[in-house]
Specification:
α1 packs parallel to α4. This protein has one domain: Carbon-nitrogen hydrolase (Nitrilase/N-carbamoyl-D-aminoacid amidohydrolase). It is α/β, with parallel strands linked by helices. It contains 10 helices and 14 strands. The protein starts with a strand and ends in an 8-residue tail after the last helix. It is 33% helix and 24% strand. GO terms for molecular function: hydrolase activity. Keywords: Hydrolase. InterPro entries: C-N_Hydrolase, C-N_Hydrolase_sf.
Length: 291
């Protein structure tokens, strides 16, 4: 299969038609390169808040609600594009108010047959906890598709090994991210690469990029697209299948074969995934040694 991951820049939108045209162009470009799965980044949907004007886009709480209110239309658009181009699409995540509680950070995976399902972020960053008041969402899911089994770890979630281990059956783990500084980008990238090593799978990181002075939430974004595997048989020695240029909007592509993933899990130079449980008894018996 061919994977496409986005370094995605936000735009100021004057009307809904501009958003439709933008998404159609991005999807068409990747599908035109033969992509079977497209990955957009975390909080890429925040540009929709501009449709309600500068006062709303610049206010944290009002921008959250404005974006959440448009998610029905967003889902219809993405579903149509996935069917039209016969590709899977992980849409950019958005704050979604689901019920009477606080919003969750939700990414939706769209299939070419018209079906879709979502994954909510599990662990909030300090900004999400202390400024946005974003709540942890529903449980982790494993999506069984013709492309293989797909898991999703949204940004900060990728930095937690036990969340990754819960998705150890996944062939591909998608990591949509939104990071303000270069250090944040590298934290998520290191997390994505670590999960690929531990699970002997492929991880796909998408990034929000660029400056947006109209927003207090996504005003500065650093990153690029990256596709990673274990540095082992059938994969590059660095574990990097593909990476884009830092902060340059566009798609990054890599071709992945499920057979290669199965082979490295069965007969890699190391077998991290199979040997995971050997840690368990040893970490419970740490002793203190005075020197």
């Amino acid at each position: 299969m061919r994977l496409a991951t986005a370094a995605y820049n936000l735009d100021w939108l004057e009307n809904w038609a501009q958003y439709e045209d933008k998404l159609a162009r991005w999807v068409s470009d990747a599908a035109g390169q033969g992509a079977d799965l497209l990955v957009f980044p975390e909080y890429g949907a925040m540009e929709l808040s501009t449709l309600d004007g500068a006062e709303v886009a610049g206010d944290l709480e009002r921008s959250i609600r404005a974006v959440s209110d448009r998610m029905g239309d967003v889902q219809a658009l993405h579903s149509r594009l996935a069917q039209e181009h016969e590709t899977y699409i992980l849409g950019a995540s958005a704050p979604v108010i689901d019920g009477s509680g606080r919003p969750v950070n939700r990414a939706v995976l769209y299939a070419p047959n018209g079906t879709f399902d979502h994954q909510d972020k599990q662990i909030m960053t300090r900004f999400e906890r202390e400024d946005w008041d974003i709540a942890p969402g529903g449980p982790l899911k494993l999506f069984d598709t013709p492309l293989g089994k797909i898991g999703i770890l949204i940004c900060y979630d990728s930095e937690f090994p036990l969340l990754g281990r819960a998705l150890s059956e996944a062939d591909i783990i998608l990591v949509p991210s939104c990071t303000e500084a270069l250090a944040g980008y590298w934290r998520v990238r290191i997390g994505a690469m670590s999960r690929a090593l531990e699970n002997q799978c492929v991880t796909v990181m998408a990034s929000l990029v660029g400056k947006n002075e109209w927003s207090d939430a996504v005003d500065m974004n650093t990153g690029t697209g990256g596709i990673f595997g274990p540095p082992d048989k059938g994969f590059p020695a660095t574990g990097v299948l593909a990476e884009g240029a830092l902060n340059q909007p566009g798609w990054t592509y890599a071709d992945v074969d499920l057979t290669t993933i199965a082979n490295v899990r069965r007969d890699g130079h190391v077998l991290n995934r199979a040997h995971w449980d050997e840690q368990c008894g040893r970490v419970e018996t740490v002793t203190i040694s005075s020197l």
